[in-house]
């Protein structure tokens, strides 16, 4: 399989469906004396789209996610977001705060103006979606790597973001588990009708899971295309 080359990638045009997030010519550096890390990033994401962001180490993938999430501000360019954007970081296990998986899920909803009933509905929904029924009373740190990953995904989804940004979510898992989780993630994404931006440096993973593949190099988009 090869990705169709475009010598001068244009901002990606939506192919139908609502646009949920749009970045136009985003430029970013970590300090005014440091070099640009993201150089004119333009991306348009549609509802339910699975976009893989592919590229080698240090090419600006993680920084691009930080810009799209609003965690970092570009010094030039515009970002339009309709709805909330969630993020699944590289080592989500580090975020577990409570003694049980159940408490950990409720903790995320704390401080939001949701009735107890709504909270219960949200937790029940992600529990079913991520198949956590058997794990709710367990301590997050006693779970296997794959189970922890499912909890981390549930934590990211319980807030019902329109867009979820995932930074190499399966990078730490062994090959077999990785394959299983790829199928799980794709199923979850489709069932929720949510937009995924999925950073990986695994070309096969990007090509098998996504609708759109974006290849980054040295802070720029080199190619955009469908996996075909
Ligand atoms: P990737 O995710 O593709 O590996 P990153 O976005 O993490 O790339 O990093 C892109 C560049 O920005 C790298 O050269 C990296 O060293 C630099 N960088 C990342 N984070 C910081 C930071 N907090 N301060 C300064 N430079 C950073």
Main features:
6 helices; three-stranded antiparallel beta sheet; 228 residues; binds adenosine-5'-diphosphate; alpha/beta; six-stranded mixed beta sheet; disordered N terminus; globular
Can you characterise this structure?
The chain has 228 residues and is of the alpha/beta class. 31% of the residues lie in helices and 25% in strands. It has six helices and nine strands; from the N terminus they run E-E-E-H-E-E-H-H-H-E-H-E-H-E-E. A six-stranded mixed beta sheet has the order 5-6-7-3-8-9, sandwiched between helices. It has a three-stranded antiparallel beta sheet with strand order 2-1-4. Strand 8 and strand 9 form a beta hairpin. The radius of gyration is 18 Å and the shape is globular. Residues 1-14 have low confidence and may be disordered. The chain binds adenosine-5'-diphosphate. Adenosine-5'-diphosphate binds at residues 30, 37, 55, 57-63.
Q: Largest sheet, described in full?
A: 6 strands, mixed
**What are the low-pLDDT stretches, counting only 5+ consecutive residues below 50?**
1-14
> Which small molecules are bound?
adenosine-5'-diphosphate
Mean pLDDT: 89
Rounded to the nearest angstrom, the distance between the terminal CA atoms is: 6 Å
Q: Which sequence of SSEs, written as H and E, runs from N to C?
A: EEEHEEHHHEHEHEE
The secondary-structure class comes to: alpha/beta
Determine the fraction of residues in helical runs and give it as a percent range. 25-40%
